Amino acid sequence: xxxxxxxxxPDADTSVGTxxxxxxxxxxxxxxxxxxxxxxxxxxxxxxxxRGTVLRRHCETKLEEARLRVEKLTFTRDGEASLQxxxxxxxxxx
Length: 94
Hints:
Elements: H1 21-37, H2 42-70, E1 72-75, E2 81-84
Antiparallel strand pairs: 1-2
Helix pairs in contact: 1-2
């Protein structure tokens, strides 16, 4: 297994919350590739895994927010389900 260089390690200074879905997914894919190829030493692998977990959660949250913006499920007085456009005042589940 090769030693990881400092520039191969996940950047701890980059806040995941500021990343777009595409940026977070791209970084997550890079982490997965490095872990699969054994390109990181043990400590860097653990740090990459931890960051990958945070990135995965961020991506899931972004997808849920996007889904809720597209549609929300409502029920008529008769109890029938219907899809309505997402209102800006609605907030996604955490």
